[in-house]
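Review this:
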Amino acid sequence: MLVYLKLIRPKQWVKNLFVFVPLFFSGHFFEFELYPRLILGFLSFSMAASAIYILNDYKDREVDRLHPTKKDRPLASGKAKASVSLALMLILETIALVTGFILDSSFFSILLIYLAINISYSFGLNKIAILDIILVASGFLFRVYAGSILSEIPTSHWLALMVMLLSLFLALAKRRDDLVIGKDKKVLRTSSRQYNLEFINSCLTLFAGVILVCYIMYSVSPEVTERLNTQWLFTTTIFVIAGIMRYLQITFVEGDSGSPTSILLKDRFLLITLLGWIASFYLILYIR
């Protein structure tokens, strides 16, 4: 059972917390009557994401066996049976879709689009450089808009832009890690072979700057400050600057730009920075 638990990657479910983002940024985080729908939305996306992870691992199992770290994945190592894994994938996908259908028709549509894009990604779109990164990043945007639908709280254009830019930044860092680890071309995914370190380093630097500018514009935007009734959001920028600088340090100096989730959970500086950013936002929005 532990093998199949590892196969569905529950650690990656933290990404689905993005469905709570519109609620947190709206100043209505303690309206608990909204939580049941959001929790079900979180679980629905988690089941859908796990189904996609199984599909990807099944499709990439031969290449993963040549990879220094991915070779230990359940399907690549042979610890998980392909037939059982595919059956589990269908069960998870069914649970996700049924839950989404019961919750809300618009949410269900977003979930369907998310699954369609990721299945298409697994069956060929992941081989197209640049498009592969955009598709991966779009998943986070779908989660945010799904949370917006379930909570009935509109998502600002600034918030959508920041989520998309940050997702692109992290997806690029992951591709960089593929290049650093996969010196042997055989262990690289097809799209990664169309990148090089110079290109990705330039893009990471570009996106880091754009993310900071976008966040600053968000924090001082009259639309946002008037809606949230505060002029102090700009003070949270220091945590964003520190977080991006630390991630760039991990990527360029320490040479570790793999799974953003794993890095966040194991890097104390990043974790403290994130908690500081959340605490400062909480103080500004909820304690006046």
